Each structure stands twice: as structure tokens, then as C-alpha cells.
Amino acid sequence: MTAAAAELMDYDQVIDEFDPVMGLEVHVELGTTTKMFCGCPTAFGADPNTQVCPVCIGLPGSLPVVNATAIEYAIRIGLALNCSIRPSSVFARKNYFYPDQPKNYQISQYDEPIAYEGHLDVALTDGTTWRVEIERAHMEEDTGKSLHIGGAGRIHGADHSLLDYNRAGVPLVEIVTKPIVGAGARAPEVARAYVTALRDLLKSLGVSDVRMDQGSLRCDANVSLMRKGASEFGTRTETKNVNSLKSVETAVTFEMRRQAAVLAAGGQIVQETRHYHETDGTTSSGRRKETAEDYRYFPEPDLPPVQPSAEWIEEIRATLPELPWVRRARIQLEWGVSDEVMRDLVNVGAVDLIIATVDAGAAPEAARGWWVSFLAQQANSRGGDLADLPITPEQVAEIIGLVDEGKLTTKLAQQVAVGVLDGEGEPAQIIADRGLEVVRDDSALQTAIDDALAANPDIVEKIRGGKVKAAGKIVGDVMKATRGQADPARVQELVLAACQ
């Protein structure tokens, strides 16, 4: 059954008849300068196949060497997730063939991961907390990237495929949850809240740029359904490489509704991977899902065990930063905002963006106003999350500063922000290119004011009669005539002076 033809059960009916079970696997590309087992660079966006060597493309006789910084980052992640750190962990070969895996195996960890048995408490939209149990966080290397040319960008229907191995060997940590049960109708919300909290945590640790749009953070969402009262989990599907927070929630919701419809019709769920489609929020069948036995794991013979000392682990623990939720509680007190306001800021993903904007020099109130109003509207209209907007807190702070200095009006500043979002460059460049800076030449303003006064003699009489508010009509006409580039306060002063 294709995604387009999928039958879906009403969500409320799904919850009445089934209990959802989830397992979330999040792949984090580590922000090291070199790859996991070789010295090739990891910079994103380089020309295809220019960041490769015999090790990461699997040439015979090449030998891997572990990246020590990647080990440190993995330990940082494990500690922040309240995991135990294994005193001796090993790498294994995960054997499978796929065109973007040049060695025909992936160096990963299997039964002895570096971190295990942890948890992450995540905040839901109503202010309650849900504890997600972490089964393991293990190290591995990323694969290359397949580019399917023609069709819909998928291998099915493509004319041909191209392979870019730049990403092959980039360090990864895969964080695997234990089964998440009991969430009921809130399962999709819990999934999104978990990935959101995990992304915030990883960013604060400085181990990854967590750019979901660039694949630095990817979520595989495992979903199954149990009939009410059943004790055994249902057959699961794994929706691969979901790359936005909104999409995590949408993918889980779709799979719950799709699986429920299949089961209600007497069908069976196939254990398989599924592709998520950003365009319509659906999933479609990928390939039959392998079991651990299918991968024929065995210890990597070319790498020794990873054996971090207890002293080193404690040194790393001592360098962990203030955790995002602790920082938010402190910031809430500093800003003097209510629990309800803070919860709203968290729910729209604005808190860390506001903090970074304030750190860049903006006033807290102005930073909040920009992110939760104008920029939130832009994110909604562009169909993405606030954090995924292509504008940085530093750029927002710069725009706010220009408003504070009187060089931009709010409307002009919004035009500058749209220019940044549309990829036109930095704020200063956009102001120059679009000619957006506030007109401060009184003589130029006076011409527009005189024209507006001449066109509205009745308004002039009202102003002269003491009705100062009537000047708003003249100010509006002048702002229109100057394309919004006049300073409204200065225009008001000149209008009142002219009517005396």
C-alpha cells in the first residue's frame, strides 16, 4: 500500500482501541574536525568525494585509528544522559551491503556500548514531565550519501544514482531509548519533546551543531500498536531519518493511524523501514527490517577496546555545562516571567534563541518579542520550526540594535529580517541593497509633510484646534510616501510644528 493510498483510522479511535509503543533512535554527528577512524575533514558542503582517504572508503590494507575527541564527546553525552560509562567497550563490524557503505560493513558498537542505562526527563506542553529511559548510547561511523537523480528523489523511479563518500566515516553517537509505553494519545508529543530536549542538551554540550536540516541530527522512529489489554508488543516499523522536530511528531501520528487501520481491517503489520515524506506528512514502505543476527556482528579486529580511566571520566563530568533546563529556570527568575509564559516560550522552541539573542546584546523583552511574534509567524508561514529559520540570534540582535539606535523602524527592521531569511546576506548588506535606512533629513521629510498637509486641510484645522491625535493621519501619509523609511516620532514633531 502506497503512502498516497494509505487508509487511516481516526486518531481518537486509535487511542480507544490501541496502546502505542515507541522506540526512538537518534543519530548525532559529532562536531569533530576529523572523521572517526581517519584524518579526513568533516566539514559540511564540500565538493563530492573530496574528503576521503583509503581508510574511510575501505581500501584493502587500510587500518582505522580511533578519534580520541570522539571518545570524549561520547562520554560527555553519556554522562549528561545519566548513563553509566562502561570501563571497557569494544567496536564491532556490522555487516551489510549498501551502495553508500564503501566497506560493506560499518564499524559500530554492539553488545558493549560505551554508555548504557540512562534517562532524560522532558517537559511536555502542559508543564508536566515525562521520563524517557535510555537503553544505550554507542559510537559508530556514518555512511556516505546516495543522490538519486530523476523521479522523486528516491531510488524507485530514479534514472541513476550518484555516491558521495565525504560523510562516510564521520563520527556518530546513536542514542537508543528503551520502549516508551503508556503515553497513549500523547505519544507523538512525547516523541517530539524528547528529540527537542535531546537536541538542546547536545547543543549545550558542544558536541554537535545538531543541524537537522544538514543531517547532523536524525531520528529513526520505531512505532507499534498493542490492542487494549494485550501484554505483548505489536510488530514495529522504523521510519528512517526524520529530520525536523515537527516531522518526528507527524511521522509517529501517521504511523499510529496507518497501523491501526491495517490491524482493524484484519491485516498484519510488516516489520520494515519506512520513508517519511515532508511534503504531506506520510510514510511509505522501504525495505524489510533486519534483525541483529542478520548483521553478523563480530568484534572489530583492527581496534583495541576503549578503556577510559575513572579519573578521565570524572574530569569530563566536571566540565559539563549548566544543563538547558537548569539554565532556563535561572533565566526565568532573571527575566521575571511567569511559569505560563516560560512554558509557552519552551513550547515554541524560543528560549535558547532568546538567551543567545540577549547574550549578543539585545534587551530580553525585545528579544522575546521578535522570536515569539514576527519570527514565529515566519516559521509558521515557511512550514518549519523556529530554530530551523536561517537567521542567527546574533543577526536578530543586530537588527534590534539598529531599531534602538533609530536607524530602522520596526517595519523596516522586519523587511531586513525577511531579507536575511531569504538568503540576501547580512543585515547591513540588505539595508544598503534595499535602501531601507530611516530617512533623517528633515528637509526631505518636510516636502512629504507639506504635500500631506496640503491634501488634508480638514485635518490641519483639527490639529490647530487642539486635536493632536488627528496628526496620525498625516503621519501615516508621510510614512507611506517615504516607503516606511521616515522616523514616525520625528514626523509627528514636524507635523505639529507646521500646524502651529
Automatic annotation (TrEMBL):
A GO BP entry: glutaminyl-tRNAGln biosynthesis via transamidation
Source organism, top-level taxon: Bacteria
One function term, GO molecular function aspect: glutaminyl-tRNA synthase (glutamine-hydrolyzing) activity
Class of enzymatic activity (EC top level): ligase
Enzyme Commission number(s) of this protein: 6.3.5.-
Keywords: ATP-binding, Ligase, Nucleotide-binding, Protein biosynthesis, Transferase
Keyword Transferase tagged: yes
SMART domains named in the record: GatB_Yqey
Catalytic activity: L-glutamyl-tRNA(Gln) + L-glutamine + ATP + H2O = L-glutaminyl-tRNA(Gln) + L-glutamate + ADP + phosphate + H(+); L-aspartyl-tRNA(Asn) + L-glutamine + ATP + H2O = L-asparaginyl-tRNA(Asn) + L-glutamate + ADP + phosphate + 2 H(+)
Asn/Gln amidotransferase domain: residues covered: 352-499
Keyword presence, Cell cycle: no
Listed Gene3D superfamilies: 1.10.10.410
Family annotation (SUPFAM superfamilies): GatB/YqeY motif (SSF89095), Glutamine synthetase/guanido kinase (SSF55931)
Similarity comment: family membership: Belongs to the GatB/GatE family. GatB subfamily.
HAMAP family to which the protein is assigned, alphabetical: GatB
Function comment: Allows the formation of correctly charged Asn-tRNA(Asn) or Gln-tRNA(Gln) through the transamidation of misacylated Asp-tRNA(Asn) or Glu-tRNA(Gln) in organisms which lack either or both of asparaginyl-tRNA or glutaminyl-tRNA synthetases. The reaction takes place in the presence of glutamine and ATP through an activated phospho-Asp-tRNA(Asn) or phospho-Glu-tRNA(Gln).
Subunit (UniProt): Heterotrimer of A, B and C subunits.
Name of protein: Aspartyl/glutamyl-tRNA(Asn/Gln) amidotransferase subunit B
Organism encoding this protein: Gordonia oryzae
Gene expressing this chain: gatB
